[in-house]
Specification:
Order of helices and strands: HHEEHEHEHEEEEHEHEE
Helix content: 25-40%
CATH class: Alpha Beta
Strand content: 15-25%
Radius of gyration: 20 Å
CATH topology: Rossmann fold
Structural class: alpha/beta
Strand order of the largest sheet: 5-4-3-8-9-11-10
Shape: globular
């Protein structure tokens, strides 16, 4: 339009543009209309099968990459060293797992990590597989349909689910049920099951916390996205479900509580 202001669009493009405007006027998210969303430097396929990836979740990815780079760079890893096992729970379109794998591939570390991405929705899991394939990380990101963590030994793409994970990442539903009707119009186009976290927003997160003693390695780490007003609630939930474990909440760039960093009481202090 800037280069040829006098040019005219053909009937086909004009009709598609008009239809897109109608969808947007009805409140549908731009990411669904375009069919993609930029996240952590990647163009991810996005549609109504899963939530639209949010910029706030990029902090979780950054923290995960930093943790993995530290673990992988801490000491030599001779041939035969077990890979680092990562879980992306409630993966949606695969944003967290795919972004982590793509970043590690750029760092030359992807071969040392296996990521199991899981979602209760088969439709969301299919979208996550599409994104893993599109970004060339399907060999590192295996997708499974499961309620939270899949059982050990189950297939996940080209991978097998391990008994325990070294890093658990999750962006689970954390919106209070009573707040759903007041959400902006675009959000109401997204899957309600990926938003509704129960009366206080932490029902699904509590269920994941309860699994961590059996599924997180003794020197592992969990990174869980929370609502900006849930810092004290997640502290209380972790203290009740995981006594002795440490829960520290990391603020996002807006200085709002965003990521709960949870480690077992058995996790050793890193060697300087």
């Amino acid at each position: 339009m800037l280069a040829r202001p006098d040019g005219r669009a053909g009937d086909g493009p004009a009709a598609r543009f008009a239809a897109a405007l109608d969808r947007r006027a009805a409140g549908e998210p731009v990411a669904y209309i375009r069919g993609m969303k930029e996240f952590h430097g990647l163009a991810l396929a996005t549609d109504a099968r899963a939530l639209v990836p949010r910029p706030e979740t990029e902090l979780l990815v950054d923290l995960a990459i930093g943790e993995l780079a530290d673990v992988l760079g801490r000491s030599p890893r001779p041939t035969g060293t077990p890979t680092v096992k990562v879980a992306d729970v409630g993966t949606g379109c695969g944003a967290i797992g795919v972004a982590i794998a793509a970043a590690l591939r750029r760092l030359g570390m992807a071969g040392e990590v296996e990521i199991v991405a899981s979602d209760l929705s088969a439709d969301a899991a299919a979208l996550a597989r599409e994104n893993a394939v599109a970004h060339g990380v399907a060999d590192r990101v295996g997708v499974a349909v499961a309620d939270l963590l899949p059982p050990a030994g189950a297939p996940a793409g080209l991978l097998r689910v391990p008994p325990r994970f070294d890093l658990v990442c999750a962006n689970l539903p954390y919106i209070r049920s009573g707040d759903l009707d007041g959400l902006p119009a675009p959000v109401r186009f997204e899957p309600a099951g990926a938003l509704d976290g129960g009366p206080d927003g932490l029902d699904v997160i509590r269920r994941l916390l309860a699994l961590l003693p059996d599924r997180l390695s003794e020197d592992g780490l969990a990174l869980l996205e929370i609502g900006s007003d849930q810092e004290h609630a997640i502290d209380g939930a972790a203290a009740a479900i995981l006594p002795g474990w440490d829960c520290h909440v990391v603020n996002d760039l807006a200085r709002l509580p965003r990521i709960a960093r949870i480690v077992p009481a058995t996790r050793p202090e890193p060697v300087p």
